[in-house]
């Protein structure tokens, strides 16, 4: 069976084609070994610092590229996506901000602006790429939108209550000591004695105020079994909010059954 041969195009045609794309061919116009599927060297006069580039006649001709230079094509593509200054200026006005920068070059370029609500902050910086994906661009507006009930982690203002009876009060410290003493300073999950210990609330500290300082509502765990930042710890697997005793008992059983790699 006869194999399909590459299209027969003369070296002179290939050479002139690259010249028509405003690049400088770096191969001999009389070289008979040049084919449409062979990468040929050339230099782009606009991007001389890149040095010699290589493309095949097929890859440029069949795709209908306006330049053989990779970087010219990238710049042209970005230019086609680029917003004009007037449009960008109007977008800032819609977010109650005034664009100070007099030029716009690209989405990633730094832009200066002032927030009309917080003029006292003076000039602020952003990029249009950030602008397009964020509701607020002003630091003060963003902070105001995340305060109290507007914050994604708002839980009814319990922070002040927690601090009022937090781990700095003598009552709380006494509760921790009594829990440790009752459990013989031993983690009730991995049975490790001493080391870094934590007094864990069986019923949530924030949700069950009456039981906060009840010793029966506490259990001793080591940091490795308790800390949410440690892989396969209780809070790492079950979360840090609204856990119940059954969750912990289930975790301890799973741990003691060898479900977790205790060497990690």
Number of strands: 8
The ordered H/E elements are HEEEHHHEEEHHHHEEHHH
Structural class: alpha+beta
Number of DSSP helical runs: 11
Distance between the termini: 61 Å
The whole-number mean of residue pLDDT values reads 83
Stretches where pLDDT is under 50 for at least 5 consecutive residues are: 1-6
Q: So what's the overall shape? A: elongated
Please describe the biggest sheet, giving its number of strands, its sense, and whether it closes into a barrel: 3 strands, antiparallel
Percentage of residues in strands: 5-15%
What integer value in Å does the Rg equal?
Answer: 34 Å
Domains, number: 3
> Taking strands numbered 1, 2, ... along the chain, how are they ordered across the largest sheet?
1-2-3
Helix content: 25-40%
What does this structure look like?
This protein is α+β, with helices and mostly antiparallel strands and 264 residues long. It contains 11 helices and 8 strands. The chain is elongated. Mean pLDDT is 83; it is low at 1-6.
